[in-house]
Amino acid sequence: MTGSENGSDARPNVLQARGLTKRYGHVVAMDNSDFDLRPGEILAVIGDNGAGKSTLIKSLTGAVVPDEGTLHLDGEPVHFRNPLDARNAGIETVYQELGVAPALDISQNLYLGREQRRKGVLGTVFRQLDKRGMRHGSARHMVDLGIRIQSIGQKVETLSGGQRQAVAVARVAAWATRVVVMDEPTAALGVRETNQVLDLILRVRERGLPVVLISHNMPNVFQVADRIHIHRLGRRIALVDPKDTSMEEAVALMTGAKSPEDVSMPLTKDGPR
Fold it and tell me: Which of the residues 25, 108, 253, 254 has the least number of beta carbons within 10 Å of its own beta carbon?
């Protein structure tokens, strides 16, 4: 079900940006860019290499501080100085490099940086970790997302690429309260593992979390996205519904072969200015 079908149009955007600009000397990486993410939707962000979409996403997740522009989360203005600010606000990101610790097990990866200590003196004085509680919590998260594994104590380095990606997604889904951002989650995966990750993205959305999906894989984008943000030359040039726009038209807009005026398509609400 898309955002327009479930009535999310009437609700304010979960994450909204207006006029984001970022310069590196004479190079303008982001040029007065807008962004709109509705509640409960999968929003794909596509753009050619060098289009500025990475700078946009980093600005939304605190890794880059824009020179200009405003950012609103659930209608309230926010200013992220670093990724920790974004995480504290409920925005979690799965990076293309995954960011998992291969030598640690699945449970340790899910609670990495958020380790829980045992109750009472053992935790406060002796600072012992609640390993049993974290294992139980990790197993529950994996079951909730439909991820099948042999053992929650299995080291990540023994997992396949798709399983490692599933662990990274499970970690952000476990802690995100506002937004999940996924940067090229199917890169370097086979067909079967790619489909598993796409199913996992849909399950995250079913849990009520909006997902921002950055991808170069057009079939993947058109398979799961509710809307598509097309980025070119440092700004959003179109915001389209994949049901009303062909893959060829989206690619033409992305590469500059066509402009929005050349393509006969209905733009979605919150489309380009």
Answer: 25
Tens digit of each residue's pLDDT (9 = 90 or more) over 141-187: 888 888 888 889 999 999 988 888 889 888 988 899 999 999 988 88
Q: Side chain identity at 106, as an amino acid letter?
A: I
Report whether pLDDT(79) > 50: yes
Identify the residue whose tokens are 């509710």. Answer: 226
Task: Note the pLDDT tens digit of each residue in 57-70.
Answer: 999 999 999 999 99
Average pLDDT over residues 113-138: 91
* 170 and 124 assigned to the same domain: yes
Position 95 in a domain: no
- Bridge partners of 16, per DSSP, are 36, 72
Among candidate residues 156, 175, 194, the one where a domain is terminated: 175
pLDDT at 145: 85
pTM of the model: 0.87
Look at the block and give the residue holding tokens 């002796």. Answer: 126
Task: In whole angstroms, give the CA distance from residue 97 to residue 115.
Answer: 22
- The answer as to whether 241 is a domain residue is yes
